[in-house]
Amino acid sequence: MECPVDAGDTIKTTLPSRSPLIKYPLRYISAENERLRTLHDQAVDTLINSEKDIDTSFDNRLIVLRDTLTEERKLRRHVELEIRSVKKMSSENLKELESTSLQLQSLKLVKDNLEKQNEKLKR
User: Fold this and answer.
1) Which distant-in-sequence residues (6+ apart) come within 8 Å of 90 by Cβ?
2) What is the pTM of this model?
3) How far apart are the first and last CA of the chain?
4) Is there a contact between 96 and 60 (Cβ–Cβ < 8 Å)?
5) Where on the tree of life does the source sit, at the highest rank (predicted)?
6) HSE toward the beta carbon, residue 117, CA cutoff 13 A
7) What is the pLDDT of residue 10?
8) Is 37 exposed, middle or buried (0-12, 13-18, 19+ CB in 10 A)?
């Protein structure tokens, strides 16, 4: 990944590669976080900028705020569940990779032993 410094100069940085299974939820969570911030800002703007008349009474503003907060909580729970799911999948993938690595090492040892036996038989 290249990070621009100034006109034409760049610094190359290496970032650990992330699994596509992690990248998608992280992008989704980032977008969801931005959406929730926008909703919150809109609710605050509505409360601040609304005039105190019959349609925008204090009770109505509280209802709008309550509904917005309820929606944000639901979305937060949903995102937390997705994060747990991604963590579980990544730990399962790690276990699978470790198992595959052990099998590969075992197969390499068997291969080396067979090559040694083959050399002995040739002599």
Assistant:
1) 19, 21, 22
2) 0.44
3) 54
4) no
5) Eukaryota
6) 6
7) 40
8) exposed
